[in-house]
Amino acid sequence: MNCGTEVCACGLVRVPAYVRGTVLHEDSSPVARAQVHAYSAPGQGCSSLDEDFGFIPTLSDGSYNIGLASGATQENVCIFLFGRPPQGASGVGDSDTVLVVLDFHQDGSLDSAQVNLVLRNQ
After folding, report:
1. From CA 22, how far away is CA 104, in angstroms rounded?
2. CA 3 from centre of chain
3. Cα separations (Å) of 17 from 55, 68, 72, 106, 113?
4. Which of 43, 57, 85, 97 has the CB geometry, 3.0–4.6 Å to 89, for a possible disulfide?
5. Is 10's pLDDT higher than 80?
6. Do the Cβ atoms of 82 and 93 come closer than 8 Å?
7. Can you spell out the DSSP letters for the chain?
8. Strands 15-24 and 111-114: what pairing?
9. Minimal CA–CA distance to 23: which of 55, 69, 50?
10. More confidently predicted of 39 and 9
């Protein structure tokens, strides 16, 4: 069913994908309570959802899992991610920003990526 107007009985279609990984120190030890930021912006060879997915904290083992959603099917979407140290951490800075390209499918299939982020010593 397609909605042709702004006001209709159709629910918003959410087309999901996700990114998971671990935030690490340069010595490869996991970082608990780090903040992972994900956003979509244009990049070379991929398009943008023009969406800021916000920050999510890592778990005690440094892992994270970010669910992403689009309102439409779209392929070759740029998703940028970077990690920030936990609040109050000293001697550690943000990770490099990493680009992943995901597809958002309406058929229920989930595209995903594994991205480990390394916080840099300052």
Report:
1. 23
2. 29
3. 16, 5, 12, 10, 9
4. 85
5. no
6. no
7. ----SSSSSPPPP-EEEEEEEEEE-TTS-B-TT-EEEEE---BTTBB----EEEEEE--TTSEEEEEEEESS-EEEEEEEEEEEPPTT--SEEPPPPEEEEEEE-TTS--EEEE--EEPEE-
8. parallel
9. 55
10. 39
- The 10s digit of each residue's pLDDT in 109-122 is 889 999 999 999 98
33, 15 Cβ separation under 8 angstroms: no
* CA nearest neighbour of 86 among 32, 37, 122, 39: 32
What mean pLDDT is reported for the chain?
Answer: 89
| Whole-angstrom distance, CA of residue 96 vs CA of residue 109 | 29
Of residues 52 and 5, more confidence is placed in 52
Q: Which residue has the tokens 């998971």?
A: 20
